[in-house]
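Exercise 7.
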Amino acid sequence: KAKETRTCKQQLVLQSPHLWSTNDPYLYKVETIVKVGGVVTDIYETTTGLLDITFDADKGFLLNGEPLKLKGFNLHQDHAGVGAAIPEALMAWRIKRLKELGCNAYRSAHNPATPAQLDICDREGILVIDENRLTGINDEHLRLLERLVKRDRNHPSVILWSCGNEEWGMENTVQGTRVAAAMKEYVRLLDPTRHSTLANAGGSELIKGTDVVGYNYISQNNVENRRLQHPEWKVVGTEEFTGCGTRGIYFNSPDVKGRMRSMNLDDKSYGVENVIERGWRFYAEHDWAAGAFFWTGFDYRGEPNPLSYPAHDSEFGVLDYCGFWKDEAWYLKSWWTDDPVLHIFPHWNLQGHEGEEIDIWAYSNCDEVELTVNGKRLERQKMPRHGHLKWKAVYQPGKVVATGYKNGKRILTQTLETTRPASKIILKADRQQISADGRDLAVVTIEIQDVKGHIVPDACPELTFRLEGDGRILGVGNGDPSYPGEDHPRDKDCKTFSIPAFNGLAQVLIQSQLQPSTLTLSATANQLKSANIIIHTK
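Solution. The predicted structure, written as tokens, is:
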């Protein structure tokens, strides 16, 4: 009858099923056909995948029977220029940006992922902790939990349901244990194929009611001691600290409000140098731990802790609000991928600090790294596994050259130079052709370069953008966590917009309209050579 719900159970056998994995995210289509009197009245197509998910107390996480360390990020769903209204093409761009540094997992903090986001993770082979918003067992809490699981349970990317996050009020009470256990059993009724978790901020009771214990920060949870007390617990690091700061900022100063240098560069805040290293080393070196999800992948609006106004972004992303890499992204790429990596910092435009002794850091997976500063060779150092290297040098304008060695052979070189003044604008698009569907977009990166083609890492000129053709400037950004201006056009058919670059970079999001067109984006700034780029919509 109308509005009536019935259940129909069917079975089929697949010979030699093609399993979904992070390296081979194979998707099946399931077609459901409804007939009335032999006549087809409805057809529904479900995309799904076949895989085996196991959380083990001794082996960590296993995918299709093979151990796999989760290399993940927590992610809020917002982006420069568009806020929370992210088109699917931009969601896909963001996931691919994280994959470039070796990410294989994503936690939707702290709300369910959108269906479009999960579709992208299905296609890209990204494993997902799908997170419920409210923790509790009244009718409304369970209704929301049921909607989450029923909506998303056909997505192969989802490996774990999260029933909530940091419920301080009941983490140390028996009521918390009972609530967690009740939610766990309710999830199991709806999906017996997956475990659930609840991200724990440090309490000792609530976690007793979970399938998989989710630890938010080893600094808040005595994970090793709890392992000794409960070797039967299955464990995942639902949050771990990146320690990041503002891209391109290496000195804290009262004059630089709303920005900060990375907390990894000292031990004042967390009692350890390079706190991101402490977190990854712990989870990498313990087989019984499934892996870690770092807080966060991208910067996001709000929570500017430890800063305050005019800072309006959290700066804990290894990528800034536009997705430009911070130094810490290179640390993770070093240990999350097999690609040869050598990254040294800070940049060498440190005007005002001439004659000062500074630290030069290297993130790399080379066996050894050697440094030459303004012609002076410094000691060649061995890279500790999951570690970093550091040298002291006196800053003077010039050149720093790092050389990486593998098995005694030179394999990589990175050079930092004090650049010449900003001279020109360069535009680069992630795609030269997009769909004319009114939804697709191209992500355009703006680089401020000197005459030799080097990005000027402290250049912040005011930029003006103009777009010609049947498209619009959807949003702009620069990654500056304290930029006081608007980055989202109020005009829905915006053709011009101005924003300063920040530390040599900016970003423009170009969206198509419904008519095929040739779009030309131009960028100008005082005393800089202008640039343009062409994007076709079809």
